[in-house]
Write the structure tokens for this entry.
Amino acid sequence: MLQAIDDSPEEQPSASPHLEPCINSDDSSSEYNENFLDDVYEEDSWSSDSDYCTNSAKQCYVKEESSSLSEKEQTILFLANMGYPVEEVSIAMERCGPEASLAELTDFICAAQMARAEDPYLPEDVKPKLNHGSGGYKKRKMFNQLCKSKKPRAIFDEETIRLPKPMIGFGVPTESVPAIVRRTIPEQAFGPPFFYYENVALAPKGVWDTISRFLYDIEPEFVDSKYFCATARKRGYIHNLPIENRFPLLPLPPRTINEALPLTKKWWPSWDPRTKLNCLQTAIGSARLTDRIRKAVEAFDGEPPMRVQKFVLDQCRKWNLVWVGRNKVAPLEPDEFEMLLGFPKNHTRGGGISRTDRYKSLGNSFQVDTVAYHLSVLKDMFPNGMNVLSLFSGIGGAEVALYRLGIQLNNVVSVEKSEVNRNIVRSWWEQTNQRGNLIDFDDVQQLNGDRLEQLIDSFGGFDLLIGGSPCNNLAGSNRVSRDGLEGKESSLFYDYVRILDLVKSIMSRQR
């Protein structure tokens, strides 16, 4: 069902309904989470109570249906009557084992269907049509969320855009570009200011065409951060920055799991082929799941059988679990998130911020090394520093990238809905002894023409407008309201466009 993340230059989306990836958009507020089922996954819903209920339902049903069938045949009949294809039920039973509960079987089938439906390279005629069902049976909480009485939109019939392979945009420092990249920037897109917009690459069909059309028909630059660090993060960027003479942040970050987390190397089994992590999300795997994996692996001397390996690897890829002891996996710690995403240690720690908030904030952030590579062209252009308008600032990925490049931040206007994130940025600003001014807003809609004109008058205009609007209604993880740019949160993209146009207009009048 899944391939190792490094099997090909462009890995396929994981079976996890969280993978876009929140994406989790990088600089969107944690109030606009890329992963709308976060709370579902904070606890393991494969509890013994759930298994007991579903097994009891199974026993009652099959007793009425037929007492002459084998247990396997009864299970197949039960799930077939619920609407699951017989061949998919058979595969699930083979992969999950004869002792698997209905909760496990339905989860496996649902995850497999999601992975195939989300695969942008799978032919449409072999993609599954997901059956959301309406029975009175009990399933995992996640599955119930996906099958609410409000029928989800038929999002799986939408093609995702064809992404480049490898996903290296106009070039990355670690990969050679086969040909000289040439692009044309329309005259009306020239600055000031420079602008930089980011969002998830795997958006519904037509979304990036629309984004490009509103941003002067500039071609998106699609980049996977796995070429910069040890974790994937597929994003699209539209900007009017030069693409020549870029340079990376030094020292270069570790690019494999074992390099980034060297203590894992001792315990890494030979049958786990991962060298890269999948996109870091806003939620983590539960203790119950990691204990279940430990017991599954410990039950065998030597290498576990293929069906156990398959289960373990699927869960490890879904939740970015790493090996921390003999037969022991664990989720990444917040400080490991920070390191992989290019933030300073303890960037999100302290100040009353909970672990849950840290994961949510980091899961929605920029990968700093990737963004800094694109912004590096600004260093020689602004030797005396910059004025920055940072929209949907999140935890300050843009500000950290510019600071790490050695670009002085004279004035930063930061717009971020989440108070937690605003506090993180403010704390970082003070601890790094920034000499400029940090001005906070909590709502992009507060930035009307009058307010922007006052700000521009006060310090002479902006040199860079940067940010990524919320991706809630764009990310593949959203099975309920993937409404594209017309969705409640993702429609804030149009505020990015509105503010960019206002800034350009006001600054052109004052020149």
